[in-house]
Design a protein that fits this description.
Layout lengths: L2 H18 L5 H24 L5 H26 L4 H23 L4 H22 L6 H25 L6 H28 L4 H4 L3
Helix pairs in contact: 1-2, 1-6, 2-3, 3-4, 4-5, 5-6, 5-7, 6-7
Protein name: Transporter
Keywords: Cell membrane, Membrane, Transmembrane, Transmembrane helix, Transport
Subcellular location: Cell membrane
């Protein structure tokens, strides 16, 4: 993924995380999703058309469509008030692809940082699958907080460092990113649990007699 594209992945994930925890209305978040989704479909198409059949370039560009289609799907769902099951099952497809892409980057291209990014995104998209595809609404806050935090761990901060030339794909940096992502997941589950405990009780349970 290009460094500039990665920066805007961070931006849209941040907005979507805020949407899931109830801080940004869905239709407001839809605009950013459509902007970034369009960018992440047009750019890889241009890259592939100019790749001259180079497998490495095509492989790198192909993963961008997974992001692009996800964001376009989210944007259209929010604007048109569509059910989320289709997006949820597509998220499962993305999660599986992300594992494969991360493994190829690690083994074939010796790029541990990018591999950890894709593995983390696999976890994130699997959570989208649980939330939307299987209607596990209790995970909404947890997924929102995880999305919000890993937006910066796996996208915004690495993108800015890569653009400046100050970030290298080393095993040490990959381990730091993996540890930060794991802590983000733990924190997200804590926040989700806290939200569940603070949720109003059902009316049948609060009415005595």
């Amino acid at each position: 993924m290009s460094n500039v594209g990665l920066l805007y992945v961070g931006a849209v994930l941040f907005i979507n995380g805020l949407m899931l925890i109830g801080k940004v209305p869905g239709k407001s978040a839809a605009i950013m999703n459509l902007f970034v989704g369009a960018m992440q479909t047009v750019f890889p198409t241009i890259i592939i058309s100019q790749a001259n059949g180079d497998p490495a370039i095509i492989f790198g560009a192909a993963g961008l469509y997974l992001f692009g289609f996800t964001y376009l799907y989210v944007g259209l769902n929010q604007l048109c008030s569509l059910p989320g099951e289709g997006l949820g099952w597509f998220s499962l497809f993305v999660a599986v692809c992300a594992i494969v892409i991360g493994s190829v980057l690690l083994v074939h291209f010796d790029d541990p940082v990018s591999a950890v990014m894709w593995y983390t995104w696999a976890v994130l998209w699997f959570m989208f699958f649980l939330l939307l595809g299987l209607n596990m609404e209790s995970l909404a806050i947890t997924t929102g907080w995880f999305t919000l935090i890993v937006a910066h761990i796996t996208a915004t901060i690495p993108a800015l460092l890569l653009i400046s030339g100050a970030f290298k794909s080393t095993t040490a940096n990959a381990l730091w990113m993996a540890a930060a992502s794991l802590l983000a997941l733990i924190f997200a589950f804590v926040m989700g649990r806290r939200a569940a405990l603070n949720a109003p009780a059902p009316a049948a349970m609060t009415q005595a007699g």
